[in-house]
Write a structure and sequence with these properties.
Blueprint lengths: L26 E9 L5 H11 L3 E9 L7 E9 L4 H13 L3 E8 L1 H6 L35 H16 L13 H21 L2 H13 L10 H11 L3 E4 L6 H9 L2 E4 L17 H12 L2 H14 L4 H16 L2 E4 L2 E4 L2 H4 L2 H6 L6 E4 L2 H4 L12 E5 L2 H7 L1
Parallel strand pairs: 5-6, 7-10, 9-10
Antiparallel strand pairs: 1-3, 1-4, 2-3, 7-8
Helix pairs in contact: 8-10, 10-11, 10-15
Length: 397
């Protein structure tokens, strides 16, 4: 098995780790290079860095996710406008020696460290923000189908209180759904079940019957989060956690780092079973849950979550946009056809058919392009990103 490397640097290279700040604008440049394991390989690369007089402030190693290589190294450099050409020359020489080099980003390292956002260090820290949704919950917007229905609003408040009082380690309380709620679920369930057999990815089609067998999925029953959470934990280590409403992108992604998916327990208004302006249990349980039982998809989701811990607001926006184009609206190749794996597609009747109609644009998934792409939230997507598989998406992320 591959392990993270530990090593002792020669004393002649120790200066590379020391930051010497003069009255110069310092910028942190982060680089990843991927190498094959051989005796003295790392020392050769470090010698190249020293030769170009580039000041390195951090180095970290991980087993490579690229099967053709052995290790990924992440390095931070201090750069100035004056030594930018030295950095490029150094990276070029490392590439010429056989390593795969990726320049991840540039930024003011000192200011980023000073303004490092709070992030959970352990899974119980999720209690800090799970009770602080940004929107919805029991407070409905005026355009919500249930806004003028007092019975629906009282019922929503009852279900939201479960998430308000829930804490990590407790069993997820069960909701006794009403006949009206179950009928609404059944209308959505039957339609999506039919469409998913045609348009959903292979993994979704394989896992869904397992949810019916093990978690009580059917058009006559709304499954309980506790039963689903236990099933997912056995499959991939993921668990569910009840949430009152929409979390911020940062808080939601931070949860994925711990393989926790925050999911609502209430359901859309019965007068609009085919539409909801917010995530509800139909979207969560029919769209998201099935693929959290797939190991590659679970790894990919956690990868985005790990990258979000302590990230800048700018990077959170980029990560959440990548999440949008993959976990929510991702598509993948399956033989000669294209299938849906994003939850926003798998829980939408109209868009699930539309996305494979040939009308929208489809591009290969490139996270550096996807993270800068604007998207609409109130209409079908004009553009989707397609991947060969979740494994390849994970490696690219």
């Amino acid at each position: 098995q591959k392990r993270s490397l530990s090593f002792v640097l020669p004393s002649t290279l120790a200066i590379s780790f020391t930051s010497i700040h003069n009255k110069v604008t310092m910028t942190r440049t982060c680089v990843m290079f991927t190498i094959k394991d051989k005796t003295g390989a790392l020392q050769d690369y470090l010698a190249t860095i020293k030769k170009h007089n580039v000041n390195m402030t951090r180095i970290e190693s991980r087993p490579s996710k690229n099967v053709a290589f052995d290790y990924d190294f992440y390095l931070d450099f201090e750069t100035t406008p004056e030594n930018e050409s030295q950095v490029e020359s150094m990276l070029s020489e490392i590439r010429d020696s056989g390593a795969v080099v990726t320049r991840i980003g540039d930024g003011d390292g000192a200011s980023k460290t000073a303004n490092l956002a709070w992030f959970p260090r352990k899974i119980s820290d999720l209690d800090e923000f799970a009770v602080k949704p940004m929107d919805f919950g029991e407070d409905l917007s005026t355009d919500h189908p249930g806004f003028t229905d007092p019975v629906y609003r009282v019922r929503r408040a009852e279900i939201v209180r479960i998430a308000q009082t829930y804490r990590h380690g407790q069993p997820i309380p069960r909701v006794e759904y009403t006949q009206t709620e179950t009928e609404t679920w059944g209308n959505v369930y039957r339609k999506l079940r039919e469409l998913s057999n045609k348009f959903a990815c292979r993994q979704y089609r394989y896992i869904f019957p397992l949810l019916e067998q093990n978690c009580g999925y059917s058009d006559k029953n709304i499954p309980q989060q506790e039963d689903i959470s236990r099933f997912l934990k056995e499959c991939t280590g993921f668990t569910l956690r009840p949430v009152q409403g929409l979390l911020s992108s940062r808080d939601f992604l931070n949860g994925l780092a711990f393989r926790v998916f925050h999911a609502t327990q209430y359901i859309r208004h019965h007068t609009s079973p085919l539409y909801t302006p917010e995530p509800d249990c139909c979207h969560e349980l029919l769209g998201h849950v099935p693929l959290f039982a797939d190991p590659d998809f679970a790894d990919f989701s956690q990868e985005i979550g790990l990258a979000s811990l302590g990230a800048s607001d700018e990077d959170i926006e980029k990560l959440s946009t990548c999440y949008w184009f993959t976990v929510e609206f991702g598509m993948c190749k399956e033989g000669d056809s294209v299938k849906a794996y994003g939850a926003g597609l798998l829980s939408s009747f109209g868009e699930l058919e539309y996305c494979v109609s040939g009308k929208p644009q489809l591009r290969p998934f490139d996270p550096m392009e996807a993270c800068r792409t604007k998207y609409p939230i109130t209409e079908y997507q004009p553009l989707y990103f397609g991947a060969d598989c979740c494994q390849s998406s994970k490696e690219k992320m």
